[in-house]
Specification:
Elements (H helix, E strand, L loop, with lengths): L2 H4 L4 E3 L10 H17 L2 E5 L5 H15 L3 H4 L13 E3 L5 E2 L2 E2 L3 E6 L7 H4 L16 H26 L6 H7 L3 E9 L14 E4 L5 E6 L5 E5 L2 E4 L7 E5 L1 H6 L9 E3 L8 E9 L35 H9 L12
Helix pairs in contact: 2-6, 3-6, 6-7
Length: about 325
Amino acid sequence: MTPMTTYQLPVINVQALSDPQASAEALGAVAHQIALACRAHGFFYAIGHDVPQPLIGELERLSRQFFALDEATKLQWRMALGGRAWRGYFKTGGELTSGVPDWKEGLYLGSELGAEHPLVRAGTPVHGPNLWPDLPGFRDTVLAYLEAVAGLGHALMRGIALSLELPADYFASRYTADPLILFRLFNYPSRPAPEGSGVAWGVGEHTDYGLLTLLYQDTTGGLQVKTREGWIEAPPLPGSFVCNIGDMLDLMTGGLYRSTPHRVRLNTSGTDRLSFPLFFDPAFNTRVQPIAGLPAPEDDSGSRWDQSNVHTFAGTYGDYLLGKIGKVFPELQQQVL
């Protein structure tokens, strides 16, 4: 990895966004960097955050312990048992992007909501309890990680609001006072995909659905981002989260901040690769609206990976999300739709 490769995407120190004593000048400087990154790439590395490195290290240790279990054991927590909560394990090749299997396995998690929670009582899709692997410390570590990274998500959304010359609480007051938090543990095996499987990528080209994704990746690498100049690598930068904007922020900003396609190479490193994306998204039942005062969007469907026009969508975030996730696990879609 060369320095040039490391810094092809912007690196932003976001410490001021979590500092209640930060000056207007410091906040403005961070907001300006975020604006440049979101207009140019839709991706940036966030450093200077408050997520403890020992917590990340413990989650990585426990994740490797989980994925090292034999498949039959891991399938005790399979997604078919998660019901409408859309939680649980899927085996390698079990998730699709654009109808093609990805060469990864994973564990779907999210905010831990019990049966008494109003959204769970109402049968709201993608809300409910997690399926917890029987590993000492796993549940507590994941929940601590979710709380810490969600805190970073709130801070970054304040920065994004300021970058658009909006009040710092613009998104919190409308969409993310109680955000939808979905979280994934992904393992990209170093063993090759079976011949004839049609698998070409760890994850195929796609954009994320919501507001903001915060990704921790281990030291292996493999993430690629589609910029105006073509595909570039987004290699691991120690102590950072890779952040990217999703389709809903694209919609809200009229395409000023675009959700950028990305993908993951097949893992040929000889070592299994871990990545932990956390999706910080609007509350499920909130109706997503364009931000007043921004230019009208253009139809960019011709240049999008799926030829869709996100700016024609009208409805709640839940409507948009459900229209997408049924294509990821077709055999499970009736459980949530």
